[in-house]
Amino acid sequence: MVKAPPKAPTKEKAQVAFGAALRAYREEQGLTQERLAERADLHTNYVSSVERGERNLSLHNIAKLAYALEIDVSALVGCLDRRH
Prior knowledge:
Blueprint: H1 11-28, H2 33-40, H3 44-51, H4 59-69, H5 73-77
Helix pairs in contact: 2-3, 2-4
């Protein structure tokens, strides 16, 4: 019998996991949401809603946030890896 591949997380779970990862990296660097938003050229309300898991981000905004945090994009989205 062939084993089925693991299912991807739901959209909501993916957004919540990404938001938690973003918050952890931001806090690790001692940044406020306001400072991260400024560095990423995004609105503070947008960053806040991402951290709460309310936004489905574009690849462009994911890259902007990763660059603002000075981390690899892969590190930021690693929370969605099937091994987690």
